[in-house]
Write a structure and sequence with these properties.
Elements lengths: L2 H14 L15 H7 L5 H14 L1 H15 L3 H13 L4 H18 L5 H6 L5 H11 L4 H22 L5 H23 L11 H9 L11
Helix pairs in contact: 2-11, 3-4, 3-10, 4-5, 4-8, 4-9, 4-10, 5-8, 6-8, 8-9, 9-10
């Protein structure tokens, strides 16, 4: 790959996974708002622990595996459809399902500015990691680079959630992201060579928080 092609890939990832890209990520907390209300996340240290658990043993790891599968399946419409169906079925709660499907739908709509047949194969909606993984592959973006950008984007959004919930300030938020850099790079490399056999999570408290968020009396976020 030429230096110009690598720069183009970088620009596209920066655009697709920018907070300004219209997927509505700012509306969702993935249950983190409930974790804050419960006192499980109350400062920078507990936030970092929470995010590391999601990345290594929770839904963010599963999303990375599904991203990688969609990336490999981008040239096969039937396999891609199976990946999309699996990703939707793995959502652990109604809010998680709505979160991933609506973000995926919004991503595909905006990604139409970069036309490719993969958009027709995916249809109007697909789970967010599947949508991003397939579109990245369709435009020649390497799986590991795409995964690193994707994981950084979703983690950054959760840090922003914690800031808006008032448990940390912006300086501590940046510190959490800096502390997670090496972890994200390592997980991107691992997920890039993963298979569907690597799916699995053990973050029961996070899943319960996502379920309980549905009845949280006062909410800033949709999940």
């Amino acid at each position: 790959m030429t230096a110009m092609a690598e720069t183009l890939d970088l620009l596209r990832l920066m655009t697709w996974l920018s907070p300004a890209f219209p997927v509505g990520a700012f509306s969702y907390s993935g249950g983190l708002e409930q974790a804050v209300a419960d006192g499980d996340v109350r400062d920078a240290g507990t936030l970092q622990d929470w995010l590391e658990s999601l990345l290594t043993q929770g839904n963010l790891w599963n999303d990375a595996v599904l991203f990688a599968e969609a990336h490999r399946a981008a040239g096969d419409a039937d396999r891609l459809a199976e990946s999309a169906a699996l990703a939707g079925a793995l959502s652990g709660s109604a809010e998680r399902h709505r979160e991933t499907m609506l973000q995926g739908e919004a991503f595909l709509s905006a990604a139409a500015s970069w036309p490719h047949p993969v958009l027709e194969w995916l249809g109007r909606a697909a789970a967010y990691p599947v949508a991003v993984g397939a579109v990245a592959a369709a435009h020649g973006v390497a799986a590991e680079a795409g995964l690193a950008a994707y994981l950084h984007a979703v983690t950054s959004n959760l840090v922003s959630v914690a800031i808006r919930c008032g448990v940390i300030g912006q300086r501590h938020g940046v510190g959490v992201l800096a502390a997670l850099e090496a972890r994200i790079v390592g997980l991107a490399a691992a997920a890039a060579v993963s298979t569907l056999d690597d799916l699995g999570s053990a973050t029961m408290r996070a899943e319960i928080a996502s379920l309980r968020h549905e009845t949280l009396p006062t909410r800033l976020f949709r999940s």
